[in-house]
UniProtKB/TrEMBL annotation:
Residue positions binding Mg(2+): E157, D184
Protein name, UniProt field: Aldolase
GO terms of biological process kind: oxaloacetate metabolic process
Record carries keyword Metal-binding: yes
Residue span(s) of domain HpcH/HpaI aldolase/citrate lyase: 29-195
This protein's UniProt keywords: Magnesium, Metal-binding
Cofactor dependence: Mg(2+)
Binding-site positions, substrate: R92, E157
Lineage, uppermost ranks: Bacteria, Bacillati, Actinomycetota, Actinomycetes, Micrococcales
Species the sequence originates in: Janibacter indicus
């Protein structure tokens, strides 16, 4: 076991010291692009300032014979594009049991380490996977002369990873956050779904049958059905693990690109449960995430009203017929801090909130 005293010591001589706090930068959407796809790659410069996070994906969705092209493409994009102050550059490397990941990490950290904010690691099974990446990143940072520590983001997409989620969240000061990977997790759990995220019409609760005049339930009569959220338990547990360790939880992909309504619902459920962002797979999902993961003007106005009515943050007051106290004050402060952080990057939001 590592001593708590050593937790913030670099894991290689010459590597930058680990971050003591996770940088709280707006990350409402992690926008995936395939760096080996010339059309997508060409769009990256125009997405700077539009997406909070641009992620060069090297793993699933990139076929085996394009793995090297994707890696080299990402290096070129990172060298050519100025990502500015408000857009982060992330990558998703190949899985730790794949033949590509060692070259992914070696190439990316030594060639573009100073431009990479976060490395997303898929199919993380336990804290041992994070320890491996942590040490390797430190060695490569030292070798490449990288000046600030690259953060690590784990994807929760195996039953074992799920069982170890708290240990994964706390495995290293590099841990920036965790995303739900619903497609791989469903397969690993042997769930009987075939989708990439979202709900399922078969996962439902049905209203009780009404009784006829004879008191006998009418099993064949009209009954409302309520579709349930397949991901509630998983997201809630991931959110708790992240909150416990001061890192950020994210919903992952929503594969039905055309169903922008259900995508917005899925993202909003995650936002309300505590997630700070979601993945966008197609440009159309960027605006959905931006809308959902930014607090509404009404919520910001209400949060301000509560804060102003309780300057000490304590006591109990009535606002619009509802009791507000220390606990609702704290929730309001979560909304206000997020609004402030987003406003610093987004003048339109700043104006909206100022006028709220
Ligand atoms: C889903 C897509 C395959 C759809 O692509 P396409 O059919 O080309 O869509 P459009 O015709 O509507 O595209 C219009 C133009 O926009 C460009 N485009 C599309 N997607 C992107 C993008 N992500 N970034 C930038 N530009 C994009 C197209 O090239 C078109 O350009 P033009 O012709 O010049 O107008 C495609 O969107 C896609 O491949 N998306 C990414 C998929 C991905 O990354 N998947 C992996 C993440 S999900 C996952 O791994 C599962 C998870 O791990 C889990 O286990 O749950
Ligand atoms: Mg996956």
């Amino acid at each position: 076991m590592r001593s708590a005293k050593d937790f913030f010591a670099p894991l290689a001589v010459g590597a930058p010291a680990p971050a003591r706090e996770v940088p709280a930068r707006p990350s409402r959407m992690i926008h995936f692009f395939d760096p080996s796809n010339p059309k997508m790659a060409a769009k990256v410069p125009d997405m700077v300032g539009v997406a909070d996070v641009l992620l060069g994906n090297l793993e699933d969705a990139v076929v085996a014979d394009k793995k090297e092209a994707a890696r080299e493409g990402l290096v070129q994009i990172a060298k050519d594009v100025d990502f500015g102050e408000h857009t982060q550059l992330w990558t998703r490397v190949n899985a730790l049991d794949s033949p590509w990941v060692l070259d992914d990490l070696t190439t990316l950290v030594t060639e573009i380490g100073d431009k990479l904010d976060v490395v997303m690691v898929p199919k993380v099974q336990g804290p041992e996977d994070i320890h491996y990446v942590d040490r390797l990143l430190a060695q490569l940072e030292a070798k490449g002369g990288v000046q600030r520590p690259i953060m690590v983001h784990a994807i929760l997409e195996t039953a074992r990873g799920m069982a170890n989620v708290e240990a994964i969240a706390g495995a290293s000061p590099r841990m920036q956050g965790i995303s739900l990977g619903p497609a791989d997790l469903a397969a690993d759990r042997r769930m009987k779904t075939t989708r990439v995220g979202g709900g399922h019409p078969g996962y439902l609760v049905r209203q009780d049958p009404t009784k006829g005049a004879d008191g006998i339930p009418d099993y064949q009569g009209q009954r409302t059905i309520f579709q349930q959220d397949l991901w509630h338990y998983t997201i809630a547990r991931m959110v708790d693990a992240c909150a416990m360790h001061g890192i950020f939880p994210f919903y992952g992909p929503f594969g039905d690109i055309k169903d922008v309504v259900a995508c917005e619902d899925q993202f909003r459920n995650a936002f309300l449960l505590g997630c700070v962002g979601a993945w966008s797979l197609h440009p159309v999902q960027i605006d959905i995430a931006k809308k959902v993961f930014s607090p509404s003007a009404e919520d910001v106005a209400h949060a301000r009203e509560v804060r102003d009515a309780m300057p000490s943050g304590g006591g109990a007051v009535m606002i619009d017929g509802k009791m507000e106290d220390d606990a609702s004050y704290k929730q309001c402060m979560v909304i206000l801090e997020l609004a402030e952080r987003l406003s610093a990057n987004d003048p339109e939001l700043a104006k909206l909130y100022a006028e709220a």
